[in-house]
Design a protein that fits this description.
Layout: H1 2-16, E1 20-21, E2 27-28, H2 47-56, E3 58-62, E4 84-86, E5 92-98, E6 101-107, E7 109-113, E8 123-130, H3 133-147, H4 151-162, E9 168-172, E10 182-190, E11 196-203
């Protein structure tokens, strides 16, 4: 009878997934992993998806394969749609999972070039902003460090503009490829304005 009771109790523990108590009063959690562990929600770019991005201030895209397909963001394969997401009262957090790294930014505008009949987007564009020359230079150097943008022309532009920060100076930096995608910075600087802009272009591998 004792053996039968012990077997019954052991079976109950297994079926209910209860934790077993340990001497110090803590519990050992079930070893079965949760189905939701590591779950994430990738952005969709249909009307409902764009509204969700605006509401959550978050957009995550999977480009680990080197491309972003239109079907993966809820659009028809081969559609010529070019989605544009604009946050009018703040910033969204953008994360692009690349083949060998992560492209991330806080931006108020995200634009995708879909003006073709391909199954994937040709380009993702977003905008970085700075309110001073020092902050602008810091954004450029961050791109050099994180995405492999060539440092020599970047530093050359910074050095040239540092002596005349009140002037205008537009410049396109060659793309960095350290993430497995091509990330290029178009510098749009005008010292007479309060806000300076870097247009970031992300192209497939």
């Amino acid at each position: 009878m004792k053996g039968l009771v012990a077997t019954f109790l052991l079976t109950s523990l297994v079926l209910t997934g209860c934790a077993a108590a340990v001497p110090n009063g803590s519990a050992t959690a079930s070893t079965a992993p949760s189905a939701l562990t590591g779950a994430k929600t990738y952005a969709r770019l249909d009307s409902a998806g764009i509204e969700q991005i605006k509401k959550s201030r978050m957009a995550i895209f999977d480009m680990t394969s080197g491309v972003l397909t239109k079907e993966s963001v809820g659009l028809e394969n081969g559609t010529s749609q070019a989605p544009d997401v604009l946050i009018s009262d703040g910033l969204m957090e953008l994360n692009i999972e690349a083949p060998t790294g992560l492209i991330s930014a806080k931006t108020d505008r995200l634009r995708l070039n879909g003006m073709n009949n391909r199954s994937d987007f040709r380009e993702i564009t977003y905008f970085l902003k700075a309110e001073s020359f020092e902050d602008f230079a810091a954004l450029i150097r961050d791109g050099v460090d994180r995405y492999g943008i060539p440092s020599e022309p970047a530093e050359g532009w910074i050095e040239s503009m540092s002596s005349r920060p009140e002037d205008e100076g537009d410049f396109s930096l060659a793309p960095g490829t350290s993430t497995g995608l091509r990330v290029s910075y178009d510098l749009r600087y005008d010292g007479s304005k309060d806000v300076q802009v870097i247009i970031v272009h992300v192209h497939p591998a």
